[in-house]
Fold this protein.
Amino acid sequence: MMRPVSRPIDISPEVARALAARSPVVALESAVYSHGLPREQARATARKLDEAVRAAGVTPALVVVRDGSILVGADPLDMGFLFEPDALKIAERDLAVAVARGQSGGTTVAATMAVVAEVGIVVMATGGIGGVHLGAQESWDVSGDLHALSRYPIVVVCAGAKAICDAAKTVEALDTLGVTVVGYRTEVMPAFYARSSGVPVPHRADAPEEIAAIARAKTDLGHRAALLVVQPCPEHAALDTGTVSAAVDRALAEARSAGIRGGAVTPYLLSAIAEATGGRALTANLALLEANAILAASVASALAASVRTGDR
Ligand code: PSU
Ligand code: MN
Protein backbone atom coordinates (compact mmCIF):
# COMPACT_ATOMS: atom_id res chain seq x y z
CA MET A 1 0.00 0.00 0.00
CA MET A 2 1.58 3.27 -1.02
CA ARG A 3 -0.09 6.62 -0.74
CA PRO A 4 0.85 9.68 -2.71
CA VAL A 5 2.45 12.59 -0.87
CA SER A 6 3.99 14.71 -3.49
CA ARG A 7 2.78 14.11 -7.03
CA PRO A 8 4.65 11.26 -8.72
CA ILE A 9 6.35 10.25 -5.46
CA ASP A 10 4.63 7.60 -3.36
CA ILE A 11 5.93 7.23 0.13
CA SER A 12 5.17 4.07 2.11
CA PRO A 13 3.09 4.52 5.27
CA GLU A 14 5.98 3.18 7.33
CA VAL A 15 8.46 5.71 5.94
CA ALA A 16 5.89 8.51 6.18
CA ARG A 17 5.32 7.67 9.86
CA ALA A 18 9.06 7.61 10.58
CA LEU A 19 9.54 10.99 8.88
CA ALA A 20 6.59 12.53 10.71
CA ALA A 21 8.00 11.25 14.02
CA ARG A 22 11.47 12.55 13.07
CA SER A 23 12.85 9.09 13.65
CA PRO A 24 15.83 8.00 11.59
CA VAL A 25 15.41 6.82 7.99
CA VAL A 26 18.04 5.51 5.57
CA ALA A 27 17.37 5.63 1.85
CA LEU A 28 18.76 2.88 -0.39
CA GLU A 29 19.29 3.10 -4.14
CA SER A 30 18.15 0.38 -6.50
CA ALA A 31 20.26 0.66 -9.68
CA VAL A 32 22.68 -1.57 -7.82
CA TYR A 33 19.96 -4.25 -7.91
CA SER A 34 18.59 -3.67 -11.39
CA HIS A 35 21.99 -3.21 -13.03
CA GLY A 36 24.85 -3.83 -10.59
CA LEU A 37 24.46 -7.37 -9.25
CA PRO A 38 23.41 -10.78 -10.54
CA ARG A 39 19.70 -11.31 -9.86
CA GLU A 40 19.95 -13.81 -7.03
CA GLN A 41 22.55 -11.73 -5.18
CA ALA A 42 20.45 -8.64 -5.80
CA ARG A 43 17.41 -10.21 -4.15
CA ALA A 44 19.39 -11.54 -1.20
CA THR A 45 21.27 -8.26 -0.73
CA ALA A 46 18.11 -6.15 -0.81
CA ARG A 47 16.69 -8.28 2.01
CA LYS A 48 19.94 -8.19 3.94
CA LEU A 49 20.28 -4.41 3.79
CA ASP A 50 16.65 -4.00 4.81
CA GLU A 51 17.25 -6.25 7.84
CA ALA A 52 20.55 -4.58 8.75
CA VAL A 53 18.99 -1.12 8.79
CA ARG A 54 16.00 -2.35 10.82
CA ALA A 55 18.28 -4.14 13.28
CA ALA A 56 19.80 -0.73 14.02
CA GLY A 57 16.34 0.62 14.85
CA VAL A 58 16.19 2.66 11.65
CA THR A 59 13.55 2.65 8.91
CA PRO A 60 14.86 1.61 5.48
CA ALA A 61 13.52 3.42 2.43
CA LEU A 62 14.28 1.56 -0.77
CA VAL A 63 13.72 3.85 -3.76
CA VAL A 64 12.52 2.39 -7.08
CA VAL A 65 10.46 3.49 -10.07
CA ARG A 66 7.55 1.22 -10.96
CA ASP A 67 5.21 1.94 -13.86
CA GLY A 68 6.03 5.62 -13.65
CA SER A 69 5.52 5.93 -9.89
CA ILE A 70 8.51 6.73 -7.74
CA LEU A 71 8.26 4.60 -4.61
CA VAL A 72 10.06 5.57 -1.41
CA GLY A 73 9.96 2.61 0.95
CA ALA A 74 9.51 -0.14 -1.62
CA ASP A 75 9.22 -3.76 -0.50
CA PRO A 76 12.56 -5.54 -1.00
CA LEU A 77 10.65 -8.82 -1.39
CA ASP A 78 8.76 -7.46 -4.38
CA MET A 79 11.39 -6.46 -6.87
CA GLY A 80 10.82 -8.84 -9.76
CA PHE A 81 9.92 -5.86 -11.95
CA LEU A 82 13.50 -4.60 -11.59
CA PHE A 83 14.75 -7.67 -13.44
CA GLU A 84 12.38 -7.44 -16.39
CA PRO A 85 14.19 -6.83 -19.68
CA ASP A 86 12.61 -3.38 -20.01
CA ALA A 87 13.68 -2.23 -16.52
CA LEU A 88 15.87 0.84 -16.83
CA LYS A 89 18.84 2.21 -14.99
CA ILE A 90 17.31 5.53 -14.02
CA ALA A 91 19.70 8.43 -13.48
CA GLU A 92 18.51 11.88 -12.47
CA ARG A 93 18.18 12.94 -16.11
CA ASP A 94 15.87 9.97 -16.74
CA LEU A 95 13.46 10.35 -13.81
CA ALA A 96 10.98 12.68 -15.48
CA VAL A 97 10.93 10.58 -18.63
CA ALA A 98 10.29 7.40 -16.62
CA VAL A 99 7.42 9.12 -14.78
CA ALA A 100 5.90 10.58 -17.95
CA ARG A 101 6.10 7.29 -19.81
CA GLY A 102 5.15 4.91 -17.01
CA GLN A 103 8.52 3.16 -17.08
CA SER A 104 10.16 1.03 -14.37
CA GLY A 105 13.71 0.74 -13.13
CA GLY A 106 16.35 1.11 -10.48
CA THR A 107 17.46 4.57 -9.38
CA THR A 108 21.12 5.60 -9.38
CA VAL A 109 22.67 7.53 -6.50
CA ALA A 110 21.86 10.80 -8.29
CA ALA A 111 18.23 9.88 -8.95
CA THR A 112 17.82 8.54 -5.41
CA MET A 113 19.22 11.78 -3.97
CA ALA A 114 16.88 13.88 -6.10
CA VAL A 115 13.91 11.86 -4.85
CA VAL A 116 14.75 11.67 -1.17
CA ALA A 117 15.72 15.35 -0.95
CA GLU A 118 12.16 16.03 -2.06
CA VAL A 119 10.62 14.00 0.79
CA GLY A 120 12.96 15.01 3.61
CA ILE A 121 15.20 11.96 3.99
CA VAL A 122 18.74 13.06 4.81
CA VAL A 123 20.86 9.90 4.85
CA MET A 124 21.38 7.29 2.16
CA ALA A 125 23.66 4.34 1.52
CA THR A 126 25.10 2.86 -1.64
CA GLY A 127 28.01 0.68 -2.73
CA GLY A 128 29.98 3.05 -4.91
CA ILE A 129 29.08 6.40 -6.38
CA GLY A 130 29.63 7.08 -10.03
CA GLY A 131 32.64 9.33 -10.52
CA VAL A 132 35.14 10.38 -13.15
CA HIS A 133 35.68 7.25 -15.22
CA LEU A 134 39.09 5.94 -16.15
CA GLY A 135 39.76 7.31 -19.63
CA ALA A 136 37.40 10.26 -19.07
CA GLN A 137 39.87 12.50 -20.91
CA GLU A 138 38.72 10.69 -24.06
CA SER A 139 35.18 9.59 -23.23
CA TRP A 140 34.03 12.54 -21.06
CA ASP A 141 32.30 9.90 -18.93
CA VAL A 142 31.70 11.68 -15.64
CA SER A 143 28.79 10.39 -13.60
CA GLY A 144 25.77 12.58 -12.94
CA ASP A 145 26.16 11.40 -9.34
CA LEU A 146 28.86 14.04 -8.90
CA HIS A 147 26.62 16.90 -10.01
CA ALA A 148 23.81 15.57 -7.80
CA LEU A 149 26.21 15.47 -4.85
CA SER A 150 26.83 19.17 -5.39
CA ARG A 151 23.13 20.02 -5.22
CA TYR A 152 21.34 17.84 -2.66
CA PRO A 153 22.09 18.15 1.07
CA ILE A 154 22.16 14.41 1.77
CA VAL A 155 24.66 12.34 3.72
CA VAL A 156 25.75 9.63 1.28
CA VAL A 157 27.67 6.64 2.63
CA CYS A 158 29.72 4.73 0.05
CA ALA A 159 32.95 2.75 -0.43
CA GLY A 160 34.36 5.41 -2.74
CA ALA A 161 33.65 5.56 -6.43
CA LYS A 162 33.03 2.48 -8.53
CA ALA A 163 36.11 0.43 -9.35
CA ILE A 164 36.02 1.64 -12.93
CA CYS A 165 36.50 5.24 -11.85
CA ASP A 166 39.69 7.21 -11.44
CA ALA A 167 39.92 7.87 -7.69
CA ALA A 168 42.26 10.87 -7.97
CA LYS A 169 40.17 12.61 -10.63
CA THR A 170 36.98 11.82 -8.72
CA VAL A 171 38.34 13.38 -5.52
CA GLU A 172 39.39 16.47 -7.51
CA ALA A 173 35.95 16.75 -9.10
CA LEU A 174 34.27 16.48 -5.68
CA ASP A 175 36.52 19.31 -4.50
CA THR A 176 35.54 21.48 -7.46
CA LEU A 177 31.87 20.79 -6.74
CA GLY A 178 32.10 21.77 -3.08
CA VAL A 179 31.21 18.30 -1.82
CA THR A 180 32.49 17.60 1.71
CA VAL A 181 34.28 14.25 1.70
CA VAL A 182 34.96 12.50 4.99
CA GLY A 183 36.83 9.21 5.33
CA TYR A 184 35.27 6.95 7.91
CA ARG A 185 38.20 5.60 9.89
CA THR A 186 40.44 6.25 6.90
CA GLU A 187 42.53 9.05 5.44
CA VAL A 188 42.35 7.78 1.88
CA MET A 189 39.72 7.35 -0.76
CA PRO A 190 38.75 3.68 -0.80
CA ALA A 191 38.92 1.94 -4.17
CA PHE A 192 35.59 0.14 -3.82
CA TYR A 193 36.66 -3.57 -3.71
CA ALA A 194 40.06 -2.51 -2.31
CA ARG A 195 40.44 -0.51 0.88
CA SER A 196 42.75 2.16 -0.49
CA SER A 197 43.26 4.00 -3.74
CA GLY A 198 46.23 5.81 -2.22
CA VAL A 199 44.48 9.13 -2.84
CA PRO A 200 44.07 11.24 0.31
CA VAL A 201 40.66 12.56 1.34
CA PRO A 202 40.45 15.95 3.07
CA HIS A 203 38.86 14.83 6.36
CA ARG A 204 38.57 11.82 8.63
CA ALA A 205 35.95 10.88 11.22
CA ASP A 206 35.97 7.92 13.56
CA ALA A 207 32.44 7.89 14.94
CA PRO A 208 28.93 8.33 13.51
CA GLU A 209 28.38 11.22 15.95
CA GLU A 210 31.23 13.15 14.33
CA ILE A 211 29.63 12.69 10.93
CA ALA A 212 26.26 13.78 12.31
CA ALA A 213 27.85 16.91 13.78
CA ILE A 214 29.37 17.82 10.42
CA ALA A 215 26.03 17.20 8.70
CA ARG A 216 24.28 19.47 11.18
CA ALA A 217 26.85 22.20 10.75
CA LYS A 218 26.36 22.03 6.99
CA THR A 219 22.61 22.41 7.45
CA ASP A 220 23.07 25.31 9.87
CA LEU A 221 25.33 27.01 7.33
CA GLY A 222 22.71 26.56 4.63
CA HIS A 223 25.07 24.49 2.49
CA ARG A 224 23.34 22.60 -0.28
CA ALA A 225 26.05 20.13 -1.27
CA ALA A 226 26.14 16.59 0.06
CA LEU A 227 28.33 15.13 2.75
CA LEU A 228 30.04 12.13 1.19
CA VAL A 229 31.21 9.55 3.70
CA VAL A 230 33.67 7.04 2.30
CA GLN A 231 34.14 3.78 4.17
CA PRO A 232 36.61 1.07 3.10
CA CYS A 233 35.27 -2.39 2.27
CA PRO A 234 35.37 -4.62 5.39
CA GLU A 235 38.82 -6.12 5.76
CA HIS A 236 37.75 -9.78 5.59
CA ALA A 237 36.17 -9.31 2.16
CA ALA A 238 38.38 -6.66 0.57
CA LEU A 239 40.59 -7.39 -2.46
CA ASP A 240 44.06 -5.99 -2.82
CA THR A 241 44.62 -2.98 -5.04
CA GLY A 242 46.70 -4.89 -7.62
CA THR A 243 44.04 -7.57 -8.13
CA VAL A 244 41.41 -4.90 -8.63
CA SER A 245 43.37 -2.81 -11.09
CA ALA A 246 44.32 -5.85 -13.17
CA ALA A 247 40.68 -6.98 -13.32
CA VAL A 248 39.50 -3.47 -14.14
CA ASP A 249 42.07 -3.04 -16.93
CA ARG A 250 41.03 -6.34 -18.48
CA ALA A 251 37.33 -5.47 -18.21
CA LEU A 252 37.88 -2.02 -19.72
CA ALA A 253 39.70 -3.48 -22.70
CA GLU A 254 36.86 -5.96 -23.22
CA ALA A 255 34.23 -3.22 -22.99
CA ARG A 256 36.12 -1.09 -25.49
CA SER A 257 36.37 -3.87 -28.05
CA ALA A 258 32.69 -4.76 -27.52
CA GLY A 259 31.77 -1.09 -28.18
CA ILE A 260 29.90 -0.64 -24.88
CA ARG A 261 28.95 2.99 -24.13
CA GLY A 262 27.05 5.29 -21.76
CA GLY A 263 24.94 3.86 -18.95
CA ALA A 264 25.64 0.32 -20.15
CA VAL A 265 29.33 0.61 -19.30
CA THR A 266 28.98 0.09 -15.55
CA PRO A 267 26.81 -3.05 -15.61
CA TYR A 268 29.05 -4.59 -18.28
CA LEU A 269 32.26 -3.89 -16.39
CA LEU A 270 30.92 -5.02 -13.04
CA SER A 271 30.05 -8.44 -14.36
CA ALA A 272 33.36 -8.74 -16.22
CA ILE A 273 35.24 -7.87 -13.01
CA ALA A 274 33.23 -10.37 -10.95
CA GLU A 275 34.16 -13.02 -13.50
CA ALA A 276 37.84 -12.05 -13.60
CA THR A 277 38.17 -12.29 -9.82
CA GLY A 278 36.41 -15.64 -9.52
CA GLY A 279 33.52 -14.11 -7.63
CA ARG A 280 35.66 -12.43 -4.98
CA ALA A 281 34.66 -9.01 -6.26
CA LEU A 282 31.04 -9.98 -5.72
CA THR A 283 31.72 -11.03 -2.13
CA ALA A 284 33.46 -7.71 -1.53
CA ASN A 285 30.58 -5.81 -3.14
CA LEU A 286 28.00 -7.48 -0.90
CA ALA A 287 30.10 -6.94 2.24
CA LEU A 288 30.65 -3.24 1.55
CA LEU A 289 27.00 -2.67 0.72
CA GLU A 290 25.98 -4.11 4.06
CA ALA A 291 28.66 -2.21 5.98
CA ASN A 292 27.59 1.04 4.32
CA ALA A 293 23.92 0.47 5.17
CA ILE A 294 24.88 -0.17 8.80
CA LEU A 295 27.06 2.95 9.01
CA ALA A 296 24.33 5.02 7.35
CA ALA A 297 21.87 3.74 9.97
CA SER A 298 24.22 4.78 12.80
CA VAL A 299 24.68 8.21 11.25
CA ALA A 300 20.91 8.63 10.78
CA SER A 301 20.37 7.66 14.43
CA ALA A 302 23.04 10.05 15.67
CA LEU A 303 21.61 12.82 13.51
CA ALA A 304 18.04 12.22 14.71
CA ALA A 305 19.24 12.19 18.34
CA SER A 306 21.26 15.39 17.96
CA VAL A 307 18.37 17.18 16.25
CA ARG A 308 16.04 16.06 19.10
CA THR A 309 18.30 17.22 21.89
CA GLY A 310 19.70 20.24 20.07
CA ASP A 311 23.21 19.06 21.04
CA ARG A 312 26.22 19.42 18.82
N1 PSU B 1 28.48 1.01 -8.08
C1 PSU B 1 28.38 -0.33 -8.20
N2 PSU B 1 27.31 -0.83 -8.84
C2 PSU B 1 26.37 -0.03 -9.37
C3 PSU B 1 26.45 1.38 -9.22
C4 PSU B 1 27.53 1.84 -8.56
O1 PSU B 1 29.25 -1.06 -7.78
O2 PSU B 1 25.41 -0.54 -9.95
C5 PSU B 1 25.39 2.27 -9.78
C6 PSU B 1 24.93 3.29 -8.73
O3 PSU B 1 23.54 3.31 -8.76
C7 PSU B 1 25.52 4.59 -9.24
C8 PSU B 1 25.47 4.38 -10.72
O4 PSU B 1 24.77 5.71 -8.82
O5 PSU B 1 25.90 3.04 -10.87
C9 PSU B 1 26.31 5.37 -11.49
O6 PSU B 1 26.20 5.12 -12.85
P1 PSU B 1 26.84 6.11 -13.92
O7 PSU B 1 28.32 5.97 -13.78
O8 PSU B 1 26.31 5.60 -15.22
O9 PSU B 1 26.35 7.48 -13.57
MN1 MN C 1 28.49 7.53 -17.09
